[in-house]
Design brief:
2 copies of one chain form a homodimer. Chain A is mainly alpha-helical. Chain A has a single domain, classed as Orthogonal Bundle (Farnesyl Diphosphate Synthase), CATH 1.10.600.10. Helix content of chain A is about 70%, strand content about 0%. Chain A contains 14 helices and 2 strands, in the order H-H-H-H-E-E-H-H-H-H-H-H-H-H-H-H. Chain A has helices at about 5-20, 30-40, 45-55, 65-85, 100-105, 105-125, 130-145, 150-160, 170-195, 200-225, 230, 240, 245-270, 280-294, and strands at about 90-95, 95. A two-stranded antiparallel sheet of chain A has the order 1-2. The termini of chain A are close together. Chains A and B meet through helix 2, helix 6, helix 7 and helix 8 of A and helix 2, helix 6, helix 7 and helix 8 of B. Chains A, B: Its cofactor is Mg(2+).
């Protein structure tokens, strides 16, 4: 599916800014490893969500661009670590060999560590015009998201559950919310914070983004079962082979699709009060919805 | 060597605060892995340096304790990742099996990631009384230290140089400064920032700490060649076996000791203007000096 024009514009701006972001960073080999994964072709979903949320409250998109890029850096850091042999052991990512296949395991580990820290550094270095309170709000949200209550907590649950014969639905849901939902939520919320949204609006967007993020992860797990390498850009059927706990495994593909539809309906309902301003966030929800049905 | 009473007090306070710091963090297995390495017996050099620098400018040590603990978390995160098979492949750390030997490689990777983020989260959650400017100053310093111009950059250089037949002394120095010096420097500098030190005082303490940190790493490399497992708490002779570039390899143990003496002399000279206030930082320099001669 093609992006609508405003989103294609955002993606182009993000890609341009990302390209120069690591030009002069760290020792050469580390920089190459960081750039290899960061600049690989990607949908830039998280930066785009950040900019879309920002635009609901403010027009000067340049003010949110560093944070949008940082979100992609954090996402990339987590992908590099996820692909490592001790984790998901994925040889491909976004249609190309994964980071450790090109740079070796040690350098891939360090590229992930470096991108994680550099995401935050990048915001701090480009925050001249930002009020300290907004800056601290954004930093706090991003730091929480990569920590034990976010990404690394979700991955740890995932890893731990792989060895188990039975896992309850709440644990699977918690894992998905932390593993994927948290960063999608942070994308929308940091955009809203930077745009100057009220606490009430931030709360509604938080719920929207959390449901959207969970739906997104469930769709990813459905596609791992139903799509092909060419469609998916990485190897398929890996989750089941690794004994991972996913919604499709827990309840079957059809019920997982049903859950996606429910989550998307809830997410979109949260946008009611925003009227036309939220039309692009509605569109984003529809994309996730349609992807599950494909 | 025994710690003088004020430093022993600091170490006790840091250990107490660290013990409760991860009580309710993340999923249980991840929490165990984080606590295992964080609460292992350690000298708490970085937190102690932070508190010593703070105390030169302010007496309310409680205000610097969260940052002191965060420094130990960052240090622990880097140790866990360094010990992984794809990096230094160390089976022991602080006299006990290393993190991945107990929790597996995947969980150790995540425990490192989680501690890295949680260090910053811990400061943010305990910053009620802190002025936003001081808070941002401390955060910026710590983020820089773990990123591509700090720890991960130093490790990447280390990894890259292992395959080379010849490395020039400047690269070895750069590697050491980033790998170890940067975090030692940040320990002293964050303490000074929190204490309200002037830019001039911060600059002098930065030089002191950078030289001290480099000396500390050289001593570590000397001990890797000259000490025993019991003295060192981890396997010895590993650097040379792995083809690592260290000062002893570059110039021999005697010249490396000479370099330590020079660095310590420079470091201590930077403290001249502080008079009695800097007596504990002088003591810390002497400890590193004497450790090299042992």
């Amino acid at each position: 599916m093609d992006y609508p024009v405003p989103m294609e514009n955002f993606r182009r701006q993000v890609n341009e800014r990302l390209r120069s972001s690591v030009d002069s960073v760290g020792p050469p080999r580390l920089r190459e490893a960081m750039a290899y994964s960061l600049l690989a072709d990607g949908k830039r979903i998280r930066p785009t969500l950040c900019l879309l949320a920002f635009e609901m409250f403010d027009t000067d998109v340049a003010a949110a661009l560093p944070t949008a890029c940082a979100l992609e850096m954090l996402h990339t850091a987590s992908l590099i670590h996820d692909d490592l042999p001790s984790m998901d052991d994925d040889d491909f990512r976004r249609g190309s060999p994964s980071n450790h296949r090109v740079f070796g395991e040690g350098m891939a580990l360090l590229a992930g560590d470096a991108l994680l820290a550099y995401a935050l550094e990048f915001i701090l270095h480009n925050a001249e015009t930002l009020h300290p309170e907004k800056l601290l709000g954004v930093m706090a949200k991003l730091i929480e998201v990569v920590g034990p209550s976010g990404l690394s907590g979700g991955q740890a649950l995932d890893l731990h559950c792989q060895g188990l014969d039975q896992v309850d639905p709440w644990t699977v849901e918690e894992m998905h919310i932390k593993k994927t939902g948290a960063l999608i939520e942070a994308s929308v919320v940091t955009g809203a914070i930077l745009g100057g949204a009220s606490q009430e609006d931030i709360a509604r967007l938080t719920t929207y983004a959390r449901e959207l993020g969970l739906a997104y992860q469930i769709v990813d797990d459905i596609l791992d079962e139903t799509s092909t390498f060419d469609e998916f850009g990485k190897e398929v059927g890996q989750d089941r082979a690794a004994g991972k706990w996913t919604y499709p495994r827990l309840m079957g593909v059809e019920k997982a699709r049903q859950r996606v539809r429910e989550l998307i309906a809830h997410a979109v309902a949260e946008l009611d009060g925003f009227g036309e301003r939220a039309s692009m966030l509605r569109w984003a929800a529809r994309v996730v919805h349609d992807r599950a049905a494909a």
